[in-house]
Amino acid sequence: MRNIFIIARRDLRAQFNSPVAYVVIGGTMLLLGILFFLIPHMAVQGVAVGGFWEIDRATMDEMFTCLPPLMSLFVIPAVTMKSLAAEKGSGTLELLITMPVRDSEVILGKYVASCAVAFILLALTLLYPFAMFKWPWHLGALDWGPVWSGYLGCVFFTLAAVGVGMMLSSLTESDVIAFFMTSATLVGLYVIGLLAGSLHWGVLGDAMQFVSFSTRYQSFTRGLIDTRALVYFTSVTILCLLVSFRSLESRKWS
Amino acid sequence: MPNDVMISASDLTKAFGSFRALDKINFEVKRGEIVGFLGPNGAGKSTTMRILTCFISPTSGSARVNGHDVFDEPLQVRESLGYLPQRAPLYLEMSVLEYLRFAADLRHLDDDAFRKRAKSVVEVCGLAQVLGKEIRHLSHGYRQRVGLGQALIHDPPILILDEPTSDLDPNEKAEFLDYLKQIGRERTVLLSTHNLAEVEASCARAIIVSRGRIVADGPLDEIRAKSGRVRYVVSIQESVGTGAYRGRGAPPKKSEVEEALSKLDGVKKVGELPTDDRAHMVELISEQDVDLRPEVFKLVVDKGWVMLELHRDSQTLEGVFRNLTIGDERRNRTLTASGQAQGEDDEDDEDAAEDEDEEDEAPAGRPKSATGPVDAKVAKEEAS
């Protein structure tokens, strides 16, 4: 347990010692603001409506719609590419693993650190609803229920997505490859649900919706806490961590 | 006492696909020993060290470190050793102090113990000036020192160092070797290198590996003697010098000297060494158990020549090393030669010479006369 904490703390420091974490978090916040206020987006039903000002309702819906794709595209790939791929590439993993730590502690420590960066971003996005509806502005009476459930959805989405990123990071020695593989996989997992929702494809569509992160996540934005989704995200997390662990262990046998 | 064996490997084998990086290696290292682990690049040194540190697992065979099996008790094994991998891969964005702290945390040292150990590590590794610097700004020599520092931070009974001196300058190397002798008194050190002078300076025992097998293991003197041959260097005056004693008759020609010496009993080979025009310098190779010096002296007196020098030395470690591992290098070159056809005449010539020389297996072969003694000389100078 202690080793997990020590490794996570070191990794977290390393993330914030390099400009990557700042650029990614700052960039995402900026993009989120632009998307939220200015750009008309596709609502759930596929009908284009305006940005926040055109909708004319006190809702954070749009932020929760934009957050997971942005995290899939930049944040999580950037955070997880360092965790194992870069360490394997530079050889520092050898020194870390030959300390008296278990392989599982290395994986969990790095997982915790990567999740922490993503959670810091999530915590920062809380500034939006607070600034708009509590202080200094009061743009209307916001229903906080869907906001909290939306955050719960984001947290579980993050846990699973970071898991996927860790897994892919453990499979390669190049951080660039890890970044693009993670980005493509996460965006893919997100998009197939939206695709299947709008093109009625029968069984294939059902299967795509079943594995997609977006269908699982959407109920949270509407204020629904879907236990099936919680179980799904948790299962993906565990599976990915197990694969990462095995992949790290496989160095012994190759 | 079995407890005195700190590292033991039995039938250790590691295969990467069809390539056998290690082939049934057996050795033991006792408490307080500093052992040089020698071999050409790719001979299996790092693989062995990675198995001993539980980074990879052997394909078959077993190894024990400090009484713990590397397969069943990896954590206990790692706790009892300090390891410096090749080229000291450190976290570049950390400062030296942060890094030492991190290593100490993972080794569960508390604050007091860390302060005490850090003080001695900083002193020994010479890190006082760079403690606050980020590792990315340090030279390779300093990085290696930091790597050594983290290996020593928990005062381990066993040190495994993979080419620890490869990036150090000559001063640092000398200091490091001194230091190694100092810490080696109560610790067990396994140190890999391909610099033979280093082994001669710091280790009492060497293990030589080649192509995944141990080809020699024992005290340095024994290994030197392993070739079973002794080398004599004789130097005869060539032109009438200015000294009082000028010998009898005309100074001899080179061929005369070589011919006369090669007729002595027990001489296996006579070779010419480079000198100036005042003397002929000749090397003789003979069997271990005959002493040729009286014979050589008598011959020179009988002929009325002037002897300027006569000395005997056993083969240097470098020579033995070349004999034992030269097959590796030859294999490398054969591949290149077939790939690149002619082009590299020099190398091909050298190749051919080695082929003639080395047809019989290891100890019977000998270094090429053109370069062997020169190398040996260099090695001797470096060692002294």
Main β-sheet, spatial strand arrangement of chain B: 6-7-8-3-9-10
Strand content of chain B: 25-35%
What is the CA-based Rg of chain A, rounded?
A: 19 Å
| CATH level-4 homologous superfamily of the largest domain in chain B | P-loop containing nucleotide triphosphate hydrolases
- Amino- and carboxy-terminal Cα gap of chain B: 36 Å
Structural class of chain B: alpha/beta
> In CATH terms, what is the architecture of the largest domain in chain B?
3-Layer(aba) Sandwich
In CATH's first tier, which class of the largest domain in chain B applies? Alpha Beta
Structural class computed from helices and strand pairing of chain A = mainly alpha
Strands, helices and their partners?
The complex is a heterodimer of chains A (254) and B (384).
Chain A: H1 2-17, H2 19-37, E1 41-42, E2 48-49, H3 52-55, H4 61-90, H5 92-97, H6 103-125, H7 127-133, H8 144-171, H9 175-198, H10 202-211, H11 213-221, H12 227-249
Antiparallel strand pairs in A: 1-2
Helix pairs in contact in A: 1-6, 2-4, 2-6, 4-6, 4-8, 4-9, 6-8, 6-12, 8-9, 8-11, 8-12, 9-10
Chain B: E1 5-16, E2 19-30, E3 34-38, H1 45-52, E4 60-65, E5 68-69, H2 74-79, E6 81-84, H3 96-106, H4 111-125, H5 140-152, E7 158-162, H6 170-183, E8 188-193, H7 196-202, E9 205-210, E10 213-219, H8 220-225, E11 229-237, H9 254-262, E12 267-273, E13 279-287, H10 293-303, E14 307-314, H11 317-340, H12 345-358, H13 372-383
Parallel strand pairs in B: 3-8, 3-9, 6-7, 7-8
Antiparallel strand pairs in B: 1-2, 1-4, 4-5, 9-10, 11-13, 11-14, 12-13
Helix pairs in contact in B: 3-5, 4-5, 7-13, 11-12
